[in-house]
Structures are given as structure tokens and as C-alpha cells.
């Protein structure tokens, strides 16, 4: 049975302005994406023809980083598997840390830094694959 003192620990303390910031940020992001979609077409290819394959054949933009990583060697695919397992198990790693609704909480500093580094690496690989890969998957400008 949970007494009144321990009942307070079940709730996450938060600032009401925190959710207002999230709502405003989500709205700005949606407006940005809608505006960008007006100026940039979706990078879709024509219907696939088995006897006339495009060179290079690229995957969808959100998977290009995996294609770029796999082009360096077959063992680099394990990085993708490791990242998947790491982020799936992350809630179990941070279970003992204090829970607070706060942007860039100092208790999660290593997770924040690691996630930003991973994001920048994925972004870099995507940019390389999308803009700098030419025929036969060679780098070019």
C-alpha cells in the first residue's frame, strides 16, 4: 500500500510553461516543414525497370545514412544494430537517475552529448550520400 508521502514521488514535477514551449516548438517545426515542402520536391525516382537501373541507385533520403555506412564495409552495419539496441535499452540505463521535465538536464548530460554526436554523424552521412555520391557510388562534387 502506498502512503501519502510516497504517493508524491509517483508524479513528475513539471513547469506548466514547459509544455507551452513544446507546443510552440512543434508548431514552428510543422510550419518549417510545410514551407520547405513547397520549395523542395520529394526525391522520388521513376518506376523501377530491371533492365535500366539508375546509377547510382539510392534509397530513400531517411535511409541514405545506412546505405552510406554499409558502403564503407559490411561490418559497419553492426553500428546500426548497436544504436538500435542502445536506444531500446536506454530507459533501463537511466532508471536510477532523477526524473525531471527539464531541457538538457545535467543528470543526463552524457546521454545528451552522445545523442547530439550520433545525430550529427547521421546527418553528415546523409548529406554525403545525397549530394556527393556519383556513378558507381564514387565520391564526387
From TrEMBL:
Superkingdom to which the source organism belongs: Bacteria
GO cellular component: membrane
InterPro entries in the record: Cyt_b/b6_C_sf (IPR036150), Cytb/b6-like_sf (IPR027387)
Segments passing through the bilayer: 21-40, 75-94, 110-132
Molecular function terms, GO-annotated: electron transfer activity; oxidoreductase activity
Family annotation (Gene3D superfamilies): Cytochrome Bc1 Complex, Chain C
Swiss-Prot/TrEMBL keywords: Membrane, Transmembrane, Transmembrane helix
Protein name: Cytochrome B6
